Amino acid sequence: MVKRIEKDHSRFRQIIRGKIKKELRKYITRGELIGKKGKDLVSIPVPQINLPHFRYSSKNSGGVGQGDGDVGTPIGRGDDEDGTGQAGEGPGDHLLEVDVSLEELAQMLAEELELPSIEAKGKKNIVSDKDRYTGISRSGPESLRHFKRTYKEALRRHIISHTYDPDNPIIIPFREDRRYRTWKTQQFPEANAVIIYMMDVSGSMGEEQKEIVRIESFWIDTWLKYQYKNITTRYIIHDAVAREVDEETFYHTRESGGTIISSAYKLANQIVDAEYSPTEWNIYLFHFSDGDNWGEIDTDECISILEEKLIPKANLFCYGQVESPYGSGQFIRDLEDYFENEDKLILSEIADKEAIYQSIKDFLGKGK
Amino acid sequence: MSLTAELSAFRDEIKGYAREYGLDFYETIFEMLEYDELNEVASYGGFPTRYPHWRHGMEYEELSKSYSYGLSKIYEMVINNDPCYAYLMKCNNLVDQKLVMAHVYGHCDFFKNNLWFSKTNRKMMDEMANHATRIRRYAEKFGEEAVEDFVDVCLSIENLIDPHSQFIEKPEEPAKTEPEEEEAIEARLRLRSEKEYMDDFINPRAVIERQRKEEEEMAKSKSQRFPEKPERDILQFLIDYAPLQKWQQDVLSIVREESYYFAPQAQTKIMNEGWASYWHSKMMTTRILSDAEIIDYADHHSGTMFTQPGRINPYKLGIELFRDIEERWNKGKFGKEYEECDDYTTKKNWDKQLGLGRQKIFEVRKMYNDVMFIDAFLTPEFCREHKMFVYEYNDRNNLYEISDRDFKVIKQKLLFMLTNWGQPFIYVVESNYRNRGELYLRHRHEGIDLKLDEARDTLKNLSVIWTRPVHLETMVDETKTLLSFEDDEFKETEID
After folding, report:
1. A341 and A197 in one domain?
2. Same structural domain for residues A222 and A319?
3. I need a labelling partner for B387 at 20 to 30 A (CA). Which of A117, A171, B297, B440 fits?
């Protein structure tokens, strides 16, 4: 039986996702997409739609509380959006901050975006050994002695030999009674993946554009980490020349200068060839740019590298074009025209932060 | 699912203790639910059948998320109805179930006996199902979108009711008098004149005419102002006078009826929870608990009473106030003599051995609501003992800060937060504003401005119902302001 609430719930989800009743969107309260806490915990606010009411503005209202502290002791932060952070309200009236692990987050992401699980390649080729404690044996190191089983054996022996006295139930295990845990080594197939992020850092990519790339790649990372045990991430930035950098630099550099996209593709190809054989690795390539490449000649070169080298090797090549006030945005159209039926190449235009959602869905929605 | 044999034995036992202590309640039916079923019922405000709306889905999302991440779970849910329905979560352990049952009997007693609940519909379970059927039928007939959109609009103004109106006995409407005959009026206006020939001088035609006109004008201007007195039950006013279709009128009246049903629960949150907690604590610790259960009980109880720094927990505040009242009336710590005593030690050790405590708290649970409760029983000693304070928003550093620990300030603030359950007072003042059939509302400003963006959107929703421009008189930054929604636009005008 379908529960009645499910219909109401899915309707609510649809409103939150902006599929229906767009006029209610402005009443949705939700927090920041990324909120890394500690090692890999993220706080997820529960979205709420607050229909408008005649109510007091919370900022200047204050309230009554209980606890220690002198006059002037701060007790809570004001909230910019509305009074949800305000103290003094009854339970059930507050915005929840949910802590979840990245794995759960990825599951939720999958649910939310209706992402299919990835069909990985290379599973047969790479195996890893793993020990599992599954059995019991009569010999083994003392540190693995199984107390309960040993005790049971001894008890059984006492009873059989009529030496067990219920009034004085002392059980003394012999050497023969002892039982030990044993392990078996099992082989698990494993899939490996590498993600190479490439970002255009030419003069036309501003802070806002980079913010978009950062948020989007965080979510892509989360999803792929959930799908693969072993994941390696590499970062390339380029303007007119490309170079490999670490994560920190990737997100924080602002270079300037022209844009030669093929430089990045060449470098990515070198890395793949040197370290990640396509038969054993799942290769994901992401490239973000504002699409303002320098000259048609280079675009042609890009296309030929993609067609001959990168796309055949990769599971997926994703190109995300961030809208920028300076760029012409021609690149995405050139790719579009050329690779009309290539399903390993995914193109997505990201106009603003709102569009990240759709773009992630474009990239990961195929289950490659 | 009904209770297991074990639990129903405990239920009978606990019911016995509750009666023994003098609690008085309707028949109470317990049901056991799985966590997801309980979340569902809770999302519908405790009613198994409720009209479909995304807002219930939103509740459900919050409840099930916080349950699955282990942040909170519902222990208990009880419905004000005759018979009372209460739900237990299947997976809770036995001590929790016992505690919940004892707590539930406290609530049931409160529902039945507290004055503010006396006007609520005790067959609300059926009524809610009835509402659901009606709204479903409208959705089939007029389209789901249309009905849902209209429900959204109604929910946006659901708080515009007057919880006290149910207690006001309306004077009988004066019997309508037949309009007077032309000649009768003239006869009434004429002065007595003995001599016929003087009549034209005593009662000149022109004067009689003028008087008659004036009377007509008066009658007219009287009926022009409508409503005659400002009206707080705006929902009723709209149901009666807004140009709505039949189904819309019905939907609005459903929303209004449910608002009135839930209002007393908001008006007595502190008392109701305090009362139920008082009794679960009393029954558990004096009668029900076995030695082995003490720790689990204490753990659960302290969890319920936990007050986050800087907040008010109605369970805690309520139970402590009831206990304080009981102690004060047991020891005679009230009345003129006690109030006027200014010796700290004498006051502290005051004990007249009156033993009136139990009787007093039963009386309080019958007659009071939260506002009256705090007004009458919050004492400076209580505030000090429970470290109460007032906090204010400091916009220099975007922080809430403790601003005062003075008893008077605390009490005033607390009362303000509770009055009209912390909502602004809005009246409908005039339904033919500017003689153009526009609706004019007034906000009784008490020092705090309205949240403007929401107020504007609420006005817009009101105009959907009223179909003509709607105005709200309020104060914005200490300036009397008229917020208007007309011709698809918001306007803000200063008025004097």
Report:
1. yes
2. yes
3. B297
Tell whether A77 is covered by a domain: no
CATH number at residue A241: 3.40.50.410
B388 contacts in chain A (CB < 8 Å)? 64-66
Highest mean pLDDT among A77-91, A160-174, B148-162, B297-311: B148-162
For B137, other C-beta atoms within 10 Å of its C-beta total 13
Q: Using a CB-CB distance cutoff of 8 angstroms, which residues of chain B are in contact with residue A64?
A: 312, 388-391, 410, 413-414, 417
**Hey, which of A68-77, A140-149, A331-340 has the most confident mean pLDDT?**
A140-149
Secondary structure element (H or E) that encloses residue B295, with its range: helix B294-305
Tokens describing residue A85: 């952070």
Which among A339, A334, A343 has a CA at the least distance from the CA of A362? A343
Cβ contact A87:B310 at 8 Å: yes
Are A293 and A335 found together in one domain?
yes
pLDDT at residue number A310? 86
Task: Give the integer Cα–Cα distance in Å for B135 and B465.
Answer: 18
Contact A64 B397 (CB under 8 A): no
Q: How many helices (H) and strands (E) does chain A have?
A: 10, 15
Tally A–B CB contacts below 8 A: 226
pLDDT of residue B391 exceeding 70: yes
> Cα-flanking dihedrals φ and ψ of residue B117, to 5°?
-95, -5
- A173 and A104 in a common domain: no
Q: Does B423 contact A74 at a Cβ distance shorter than 8 Å?
A: no
CB-nearest partner of B57 from A5, A68, A70: A5
Here the ipTM equals: 0.82
- Kindly state whether residue A223 falls inside one of the protein's structural domains: yes
Provide, rounded to the nearest whole percent, the portion of chain A with pLDDT above 90: 5
Q: Which residues in chain B are contacts of A61 at CB distance < 8 A?
A: 393, 448
B71 touches A at CB < 8 Å:
yes
Q: Which domain holds residue A274?
A: 192-364
With CB atoms and an 8 Å threshold, state whether A54 touches B417. no
d(CA A242, CA A257): 12
B214-230 pLDDT, tens digit each: 888 777 666 566 788 88
Residues A356 and A215 reside in one and the same domain: yes
* DSSP annotation string for B81-110: SSSEEEEEETTS-HHHHHHHHHHHHHHHHH
CB A69 within 8 A of CB B390: no
A265 and A338 in one domain?
Answer: yes
Any A CB within 8 A of B374 CB? no
Note the pLDDT tens digit of each residue in B110-127: 999 999 999 999 999 999
Give the number of domains in chain A.
3
Is A82 inside a domain boundary?
no
CB contact under 8 A, B66 and A75: no
pLDDT at A41 over 60: no
Question: Is A65–B448 a contact, with Cβ atoms under 8 angstroms apart?
Answer: no
Measured CA to CA in angstroms, residue A73 lies from A63, A277, A322, B115 at distances of 14, 60, 45, 40
Locus of tokens 């003239």: B186
> Of A187, A203, A218, which one is at a domain's C-terminal end?
A187
Residues of B in contact with A90 (CB under 8 A): 269, 312-314
Q: Contact B182/B201 with Cβ under 8 angstroms?
A: no
d(CA B168, CA B239): 19
* A325 touching B (Cβ < 8 Å): no
What values do phi and psi take at B259, rounded to 5?
A: -60, -45
Sign of CA dihedral A65, A68, A73, A74: negative
Domain shared by A252 and A321, yes or no? yes
Structure tokens at B45: 């405000």
A367 pLDDT band, cuts 50/70/90, is low
Q: State pLDDT tens for residues B422-456.
A: 789 999 999 989 888 999 999 998 888 898 989 99
- Give the model's pLDDT for residue A345: 85
Residues 6 or more apart in contact with residue B170 via CB below 8 angstroms: none
